[in-house]
Records
---
Amino acid sequence: MKHHTRFFIFHALVPLMLTISYTEAHAQNTIKFYSTFAENNVPPADCTQERAVVAPIIDGYQHPTKWTWIIACDEPAWNRVLNHIGQVGVKGEILATTDLQTQVTYVRGFAVIHPFTKTHENLTEHVIAHELAHIMLKSHDEERVEKAASAMMRETRTSVASSF
Ligand SMILES: [Zn+2]
């Protein structure tokens, strides 16, 4: 997987850079948008399309009761996130990143609705499962996290399949 998650010690100033702050409460989870193209505080269509993909995936897994998910809706917005968290020029495609300390996960929205690979549908699920594994394990150990993410995805598929 060409995504990875980093842990950042400094506190994110992201709320200050939010062009729009459209918030949806999912239990006590919050999904926010960070968009370059929002006008009059209305989230653009790409934001809402991305949320429509991401939110059910989060809900389908065991997830923390209090967490903030920020969908960077477009690539300029995502690049500003990367810049903000000091990930510019990192090799490979970062598709999401989690800050365990500030309890924020950033999701690259463009990759959610624009296929990068043929296994695109699984990609977003894998990305979310991976970030959730970081969150639930409170771990930065990529190997351990990825193992947990794979197990989570298998279990979810099994329980969905057995409910038919
Ligand atoms: Zn990771």
---
Amino acid sequence: MDAHELPAKEKALLTHELLNQAYERLKLESRREPMHELISTMLSHRTNHKDEEKAYYTMLERFGDWEGVMNAPFEELVDAIATTRYPGQKVPQIQETLRIIKEERGEVSIDFLADMPVEEAVDWLTKLPGVGLKTATLLLLFNFKKPVMPVDTHVLRISQRVGLLGAEVTAGKAHGLLLEMLPREPVELYNFHIHMLRHGQRICTFYSPKCAQCVLNSICNYYQDVREKGIDKAT
Ligand code: SF4
């Protein structure tokens, strides 16, 4: 059997191993505290990191703390986060999220998620306005070291090209399917996620994957198909 014909689970483990060799192994350490991560993720939608950060700090400077942001007049908060795209849509999401957290928990903090079972935590987060499965799983893995598999566009594209997932699998379904194939330790899931992201940005890009330089090419369905059809334009 050729390597690209292996079962998906074996390929997933091989993918993880090959990317571990190709990219630096990382420690799982949260970069920002949980509320910062949650609200910044909302601000970051269609916005670059610099503008997202500017909006975040301007907002807190002008309104003091989360309670101040929660009660800020709509137009003033829109102005504070104006460096982001669609600030008028983001303001109600942020304020509603802050209100829900305050009402349910008595304070604006999501530190309680650390002690919540993982599925319950995913459900709780995805009920917040503007929080989808990707944001919820990123937060739970990065900040709380929970065993979840965040699937972004790079993880999904590479998984489908290599053949870990079928072409019809949605990002929503991919979270659970990949999780079943990979080691459950949060640090392994974290490295898999970050390595796939880097690989997708540098090698397996959307328009012109550099298959000839790719460490996954021996197990990749896409590469085998392209080679069989004799239309290998990979560089
Ligand atoms: S061989 Fe090509 S398509 Fe397959 S993962 Fe590598 S770059 Fe992507």
---
Amino acid sequence: MAGQVLLHLTEHLPRKRVQTVLTAVLSEHHPTVECTAYGWPAVTNALNEFPPIWQPATILANDTDAVNSWANISKSVPTDIIPHGDIFGDWNDTSYNVASDPACWWTRSLCTTPKLAGLPPDVASVPEPDTMGYGFDDGPNCSHNAFYDYLKDQNQKATMFFIGSNVLDWPLEAMRAIDEGHEICAHTWSHHYMTGFSSPDAFAEFYYSKSRHGFSLDLINPWIFQASIKAIKLVLGVTVTCWRPPFGDVNDRIRAIAEGLGLRTIIWQYDSFDWEQATGNVTAQQVYQNYDNFIQRAENGTFSSGGSIMLTHELNNFTMQTAVSMYPQLKDAFKYVVPIGVALNKTQPYVESNYSLPSFEQYISGTITTNSSGSSGSSSSNTSSSTSSKKNAAMMLATKPDSSFFIALGLLSALMGSSLLL
Ligand SMILES: [Zn+2]
């Protein structure tokens, strides 16, 4: 059914019109409305090919591709590194020797240089001086429109570490990120502590997040659509080549599985602890202080010989609001604020060669996108010095009841044969 509906759509609807509808859907600024569940046919019709959303992943027995891939990759995965504690981060019963740190377990030792031969070091900082590798974890957040609008207004791209389950819950939001030229990396399927998984289950956490990431507007394209046999492959979009471990929980066993899937591990140097405000363990003021400390380091020359990465999130409205509030100061403190892949001069971010990122030199010269889906060309960096206060930024995300989201969804639903589940 999904194939027929999408085929109908792609046969009869000009791509520009599809994009116009999606743009309308994604222009809403009301968290409740934005976070009303909808069904995207390409996703809802493929759910039986995935583990249950938000549940710890296992390899599906009937998924031949996954079974074969694991059979191949498992040959390079060490068997003498056993799971640490459980997938909820309970390490009470582990007898790991942190001092000798045989597995290069970052969460316990901050080790980023693997001890297992053949693995590249984690990316914890960026080589370009006075540069911030800019990125956000845990998206796509259903109410991220105001935040993404802000980034767009600032001509700012970032690296988005998407959770597979979130991508299936909010595919239009995921589309927006890739369509606007942000770099997409994986952040696992269900966001648990990776070193607590068995090796096959850890593989599944990667596999089902990575291989279904980034539904692209370009894939609603008759050429591509008719050229492929399996409908689900038409909405895969891109195959990511980077990932960030939830909670930073990675060791050489997990790195080996990531390496087998072509994923580079990206960690961080500083933590804003924005994610922890929601737990009540830190206050909003402490989060702003963490940003301020990071900014002060930039201002006092700490990053004059090599740039840095700070952990920040797309997790909730507070974390996005904080990012908006602090952006002008980050821009002032750092010479360059760029996606992590750009700071690494990684011009081919995905396996698919029809996407590219600008080089670092291109980006800082004003070419902030090169060949991302839907949008291309260069754009000058925004040089206006904003003085927006935290209060003003907070207002950006204030609610604004509007019915345009439902109107847009209704229009989209009509276009797609009333397949949307509101
Ligand atoms: Zn996370």
